[in-house]
């Protein structure tokens, strides 16, 4: 995308699919003639949140919500660490040149939960409980047989 003022922005991966607890890279590449200001926002059903804003060569201003979860890169990209379900949504990046020209980019992020780990746990637990039940049933059967043998040997016969 190229704006008339000379700002261009490329979003190589506009759709990202990730699972909970993954790190994701929101990759962009911008170019402009002057000093640029890069701003990232997240929009979802929970609202709009400003993630980060910085000027080329200056300090990065990260919002408190994302303080320990965002890494910024000189090309305008950001990395989100340890994503959760609330991180799904639209990510908007705005690159503004010092002379006022700007351009926009959008990345859609879909986050899914890993369910197979829960099913694996249930399957292992069920197998364990079935094994314990089988052992207890065998133990009860042996105790019953032993009791019958003991009763036959200790009860006097009537004549």
From TrEMBL:
GO terms for cellular component: axon; dendrite; plasma membrane. InterPro entries: CD2/SLAM_rcpt, Ig-like_dom_sf, Ig-like_fold. The chain crosses the membrane at residues 119-142. Keywords: Glycoprotein, Membrane, Signal, Transmembrane, Transmembrane helix. The keyword Membrane applies. This is VSTM5 protein. Gene3D superfamilies: Immunoglobulins (2.60.40.10). It comes from Urocolius indicus. It is found in: Membrane. It comes from the Eukaryota. GO terms for biological process: filopodium assembly; positive regulation of excitatory synapse assembly.
């Amino acid at each position: 995308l190229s704006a008339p003022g000379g700002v261009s922005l490329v979003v190589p991966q506009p759709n990202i699919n990730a699972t909970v607890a993954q790190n994701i890279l929101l990759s962009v590449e911008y170019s402009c003639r002057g000093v640029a200001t890069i701003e990232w926002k997240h929009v979802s059903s929970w609202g709009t949140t400003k993630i980060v804003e910085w000027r080329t060569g200056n300090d990065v201003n990260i919002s408190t919500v994302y303080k320990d979860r965002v890494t910024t890169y000189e090309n305008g990209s950001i990395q989100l660490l340890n994503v959760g379900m609330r991180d799904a949504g639209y990510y908007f990046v705005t690159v503004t040149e010092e002379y006022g020209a700007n351009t926009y980019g959008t990345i859609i992020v879909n986050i899914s939960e890993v369910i197979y780990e829960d099913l694996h746990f249930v399957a292992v637990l069920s197998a364990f409980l079935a094994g314990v039940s089988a052992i207890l049933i065998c133990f009860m059967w042996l105790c019953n047989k032993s009791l019958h043998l003991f009763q036959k040997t200790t009860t006097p016969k009537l004549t």
